[in-house]
Amino acid sequence: MKKILLKDSWIIRAPREKVYRIMSDFENMPKYFPAVAHSIHIIKREGNNLTMEAKAKTFGRVISVHMETQLRPPFGYVSDNKNNIGTSGHEEFMMEEVPEGTKINYVYDVELKNPIFRIFGGFLIGWYAMRFWKRAVIDKLKEMLEK
């Protein structure tokens, strides 16, 4: 199986607590980030461990995603995700305070199970997905918090 490591960081001019409040509010993700989240339902919650079923938007389609997520307040979350289009991955959304506000460090280690994604995965997932995610999530966070 082919793996792709997606990794980037951004700075939001807002306190980490405000960014965390939005990014850990999974059930409201469709309201905050409609370009990537169609629906998210928390199936089980044990402390900071969440099991969720989501409908995510990717490549113009709505896909089902099973998420096993661990909140790490006030720093972010890590999540192991499996979807119905032949990819799975380990996602880390972690934050640190910097003089300018909050630095977001994002890592998504994607495993490509679908043979078509193995062929085109580097371009589709590696190049396009991160640019789209930045516009759909990071830029929206900036709009909400950098007022």
- Report the total helices: 3
Range of helix content: 25-40%
Give the CATH architecture. 2-Layer Sandwich
What count of structural domains? Answer: 1
**How many DSSP E strands?**
7
The CATH first-level class comes to Alpha Beta
Q: What characteristic shape results from the CA principal axes?
A: globular
Which structural class do you get from the secondary structure elements?
alpha+beta
The first-to-last residue Cα distance is 44 Å
Describe the main β-sheet briefly: 7 strands, antiparallel
The SSE order reads: EHHEEEEEEH
Strand content: over 45%
| CATH topology-level fold name | Alpha-D-Glucose-1,6-Bisphosphate, Chain A, domain 4
CATH homologous superfamily designation: START domain
Task: Give an overview of the whole structure.
The protein contains three helices and seven strands. The chain is an alpha+beta fold. The protein has one domain (2-145): 2-Layer Sandwich (Alpha-D-Glucose-1,6-Bisphosphate, Chain A, domain 4), CATH 3.30.530. A hairpin with a 3-residue loop joins strand 4 and strand 5. The model has no long low-confidence stretch (mean pLDDT 90).
In short:
This protein has 147 residues and is α+β, with helices and mostly antiparallel strands.
Characteristic key phrases:
about 150 residues; alpha+beta; Alpha-D-Glucose-1,6-Bisphosphate, Chain A, domain 4; seven-stranded antiparallel sheet; 3 helices; 7 strands; about 30% helix
